[in-house]
Sequence to fold (69 residues):
Amino acid sequence: MTKTKLSKREYVQSLDIAARGYDFYGLVAAAMRDADTENLGRLRVAFPGIYESLLNWKDKRIWPLGLDT
Fold:
């Protein structure tokens, strides 16, 4: 089932997330991690490079976290 409207709760959450100043592609990657199968498929089509990067980084230990790379 495709969701067509944003709930008030989701809208308020979006305000909080936006206020934190996260990078756009970091948010896309986070959405991919939390997405159900249908939405992950949509995100993969829209952002194939981000999905590939997420898979590549998944198995690598990132410590200390290099934020400039």
Q: What stands out?
A: The CA atoms of residues 35 and 44 lie 11 Å apart. Helices lie at 8-19, 24-34, 37-46, 48-58.
